[in-house]
Amino acid sequence: MQVAIPHTLGREVARERLRSRSHTLADAIPGGAAQVTTSWPTTDRMQLNITAMGQVVDGHVDVEDTQLLFNVTLPAMLSFMEPLIAGAIRDQGPKLLK
């Protein structure tokens, strides 16, 4: 699943805001019991590992000049929730840039 969050901040500002707010990602996941770990394998990619509802979800966020591009691989058991998860990313993603 891929979700784009547009921005007008430029790549550097968007990257710094994402870095400084990445610790709040778990708060944005419905259910309240999620654990999120992040790493930065490259300057413009934040790797995600999310554990919630007994499931592990991997993904990454690419920081681009005009958008954040969320890529999330859902396990088969959560594939039916793709619209809900995509909607949550669209709703919560811009808050990571404020």
UniProtKB/TrEMBL annotation:
InterPro entries: PHA_gran_rgn (IPR013433). It comes from the Bacteria. This is Polyhydroxyalkanoic acid synthase. It comes from Croceibacterium mercuriale.
